[in-house]
Amino acid sequence: MDKRELIEKAYELAREQYKAFGVDTDAVVDKMNDVQISLHCWQTDDVGGFERPDAELGGGGIQVTGNFPGKAQNIDQMRQDLDKVMSLLPGKQRLNLHAIYGEFGGQLVDRDQIEVKHFQGWIDWAKQRGMGLDFNATCFSHPKADDGYTLSSKNEDVRRFWVEHVKRCRAITAEMGKQLGSPSVHNTWIPDGSKDELVDRNGHRALLKKSLDEAFAHDYPREFMLDAVESKLFGIGAEFMTVGSHDFYLGYAIKNNKLICLDNGHFHPTEQVGDKVSACLQFVDDVLLHITRGVRWDSDHVVVLNDEIQLIASEIIRNDFLNRVKIGLDFFDASINRVGAYVVGTRATQQAFMRAMLEPYAILKDFEENGKYFERLALLEVMKSRNFGAVWDYYCLKNSVPASDDFIAEIQKYEKDVLLNR
Ligand SMILES: C[C@H](O)[C@H](O)[C@@H](O)C(=O)CO
Ligand SMILES: [Mn+2]
User: Fold this and answer.
1) Per the annotation, does 186 bind a ligand?
2) Are 354 and 32 within 8 A, CB to CB?
3) Residue 288 and residue 260 in contact, taking contact as beta carbons nearer than 8 Å
4) What percent of the chain has pLDDT above 70?
5) What's the structural domain count of the chain?
6) Over the stretch 155-186, which tens digit does the pLDDT of each residue have?
7) Which pLDDT band, with edges at 50, 70 and 90, does 1 fall under?
8) Domain ends where: 299, 327, 355?
């Protein structure tokens, strides 16, 4: 039996198994089209950007470790890597850019000077591929961020510089959404915080609120762009206090009708972002996710199919929240093949959504509402060993991308033919 026949046969059996639980696997395979994941461009080059040759991530309390060969050194290489990644993923993706990834034509264009023209190439690239773009202000890796404060800086010149940067990024985002016919999300994350004792927390938070009000003063139509604000518990070198905490941004998002961005590396390890989704969606229209894997800290390891990611996906699917949750990735690992890292992390995220769709939710909810807690627990456990892999492989087959482990050989070939020759 060839591979294709094997996948089809396994799928037929899985379809019957799931049917016994009232789950329609064909409908699940179709519904996976609704799961669009925004690929973070910065895994290709370790968050360096292309403002200068050999630009590197500097400060911001985030860190990339590893030195695997083949990092993208220019926009062409980045696009080549992203095309390779997308060729190995089922479904349709979006691309999430940072402001440091413009086409600056060899000039030093400071962050308060960037314009749509620096990103028109990306818009055209995305249009050719029929995909949407998302965008981020880059408030780190810059001399004006070196003392740890940007939008909440007490230095008025510095604060205004970053306000101007965010304003320009929002204008670029709106143009992306307009040209591509799909709303682009602009996410604001700043590293502002203090390594040690800080006596004026309130002063910095008041400044951050003022800066956001100024930067967001212009309203863009929702059909073009949506604003998100991303909180964080702490960063490296800002262990004592973070200005843009979760309380701060959730309050800001609710009051100003913005998206709250939940990065699952940005909370205390015992907190679960999966539990926050339905809490936030009682009060905000939409949520942006940054899916990552923190190992002991916000280490941004490659996403794997673990309980944390599963709860996030399950909560979205159980509550039919797909149209209110924008899904982005945010990991950066330079210790392994970077293209492979994307494929593993994105597939793991997609798989969490597929497993969530394969859950017999109606039966589980009925058990729950009738106090049958043993039955609820037992069925949740039983579902863990059903043949979800057969449905996944079939979904890959239907999307003409490698099923099972076949993508590993593809990445090994790309490493040999492309990455090792850079
Ligand atoms: C590069 C990203 O914007 C950045 O990782 C941010 O989203 C974040 O999560 C910082 O910890
Ligand atoms: Mn993030």
Assistant:
1) no
2) yes
3) yes
4) 100
5) 2
6) 999 999 999 999 999 999 999 999 999 999 99
7) confident
8) 355
Nearest CA to ligand 1 atom 2: 330
Confirm whether 334 is domain-assigned. yes
ipTM computed for the complex? 0.98
- Active-site residue flag, 300: yes
Beta-bridge mates of residue 371: none
373-418 pLDDT, tens digit per residue, is 999 999 999 999 999 999 999 999 999 999 999 999 999 999 999 9
> In angstroms, what CA-CA distances link 398 with 89, 346, 354, 357, 403?
12, 18, 15, 17, 10
DSSP state of 221: -
45 Cβ inside 6 Å of ligand 1: no
Tokens for 85? 């990644």
Give the DSSP letter of residue 47: T
> Are residues 383 and 266 part of one domain?
no
Q: Are residues 251 and 380 in the same domain?
A: no
Answer yes or no: is 235 within a domain: yes
Residue 68 has pLDDT above 90, yes or no: yes
Give yes or no: 290 in active site.
yes
Q: Which of 175, 300, 315, 359 is catalytic?
A: 300
CA of 328 to the centre of ligand 1 (A): 11
> Domain span at residue 123?
35-355
- Residue 298 Cβ inside 6 Å of ligand 1? The answer reads yes
Instruction: Kindly report the CATH number assigned to the domain that includes residue 212.
Output: 3.20.20.150
pTM, full prediction:
0.98
Ligand 1 atom closest to Cα of residue 62: 11
The DSSP code sequence of 162-216 is HHHHHHHHHHHHHHHHHHHTSPEEEEE----EESS--S-HHHHHHHHHHHHHHHT
Q: What is the DSSP letter of 34?
A: G
Q: Do 343 and 374 belong to one domain?
A: no
List the catalytic residue out of 51, 192, 298, 393: 298
